[in-house]
Design goal:
Number of strands: 26
Strand order of the largest sheet: 9-10-11-12-26-22-21-15
Number of helices: 1
Mean pLDDT: 96
Low-confidence stretches: none
Order of helices and strands: EEEEEEEEEEEEEEEEEEEEEEEEHEE
Helix content: under 10%
CATH topology of the largest domain: Beta-galactosidase, Chain A, domain 5
Distance between the termini: 20 Å
Structural class: mainly beta
Number of domains: 2
Largest sheet: 8 strands, antiparallel
Length: about 300
């Protein structure tokens, strides 16, 4: 097999999938959601598998948290649910975690690539991606197209849950000093929009609190934040498990981090979420001064690479 990316149809966790493999790594991708369900090297799993042996098949516009909290999903046109407030598409509902994680993608194998695409339901877009393997890396090329002449609020964000532990650390390629909170389930970080120093901050009690790692298992806390400025180097490193996530900083300059230390659904994982806009929704991004719109007839391309070390 060598460096060649071999692709075959398979079943995984009770649902239809594709397996990409070479001599170094194996990647499993569901038709449902186009979800990257598994990334393995030397039989070690790098992606959080959630709970239960069977994949929980979602329904369109369902609550993301009630289904399969695992793997790596694509979020378009939002993360948080909400209504578009103005413009031609005013009043259109944007579903929780977007539309496309709950839909079956169109897929085909072409040479050493798995090609997949999905069309929007409430909004006129198409998201396409091409997946292949190169040595120790999963490489994904994206294309997001507005199929109408009218702009609409839109962002893309990865929803990549890492199989982390208490020794896992987050190391961005840029010199980051501050983060802004978007989720604070335990209210330790003073709620949505709060600004904190990174990687060490003080919680509401004035105690030292580290934001580059999980808390102890059973801590019962869960937070999410975005780095407060765009990333220029387009890289973030995870240690234990050792991996590097690379992205196009011109198109995907923002980075969200999800830290779930048994505070949500009793899971223990880290979410790495490169995004075209921060703060989990186009409306939130706009309010904080960040653009989050797909122009009429617009076409945006970017790349994402996940290298296992």
């Amino acid at each position: 097999m060598g460096e060649t990316c071999m692709i075959e149809r398979c079943g995984y966790r009770g649902t239809e999938a594709y397996k990409l493999k070479n001599d170094h790594i194996r990647v499993t991708v569901f038709k449902t959601g186009g979800k990257v369900a598994s990334i393995q090297k030397n039989n070690a799993e790098y992606i959080s598998q959630g709970k239960g042996d069977s994949f929980i098949v979602p329904v369109f516009e369902g609550n993301f948290g009630e289904y399969d909290l695992s793997g790596f999903d694509d979020m378009v046109p939002t993360v948080n649910a909400g209504l578009i407030q103005s413009g031609v598409f005013s009043g259109v509902h944007m579903a929780d975690h977007g539309e496309i994680w709950a839909l079956d993608w169109k897929t085909e194998i072409e040479a050493e690539e798995l090609r997949a695409y999905i069309d929007g339901v409430r909004l006129p877009y198409r998201l396409s991606k091409r997946l292949t393997l190169r040595k120790n890396s999963l490489c994904i090329q994206y294309e997001l197209q507005n199929k109408s002449a009218f702009a609409f609020p839109c962002l893309w964000a990865a929803h990549m849950l890492i199989n982390a532990n208490e020794h896992t650390r987050i190391v961005p390629g840029d010199a980051v000093s501050k983060v802004r909170v978007t989720l604070d389930m335990s209210s330790r970080l003073n709620g949505f929009g709060s600004l904190h120093t990174w990687p060490e901050t003080a919680d509401r009690n004035g105690e030292s609190y580290w934001l580059d790692r999980l808390q102890k298992r059973g801590a019962g806390v869960c937070e999410k934040y975005y780095f407060d400025s765009p990333l220029k180097n387009g890289e973030i490193r995870i240690t234990n498990p050792n991996m590097i996530i690379r992205f196009d900083p011109e198109t995907v300059p923002y980075m969200g981090i999800w830290l779930n230390s048994s505070g949500y659904k009793d899971q223990y994982n880290i979410g790495i979420e490169p995004a075209t806009a921060p703060m989990d929704s186009p409306e939130n991004a706009r309010q904080w001064g960040y653009p989050a719109e797909l122009p009429g007839n617009g076409l945006v391309r970017w790349k994402l690479e996940i290298e296992l070390e």
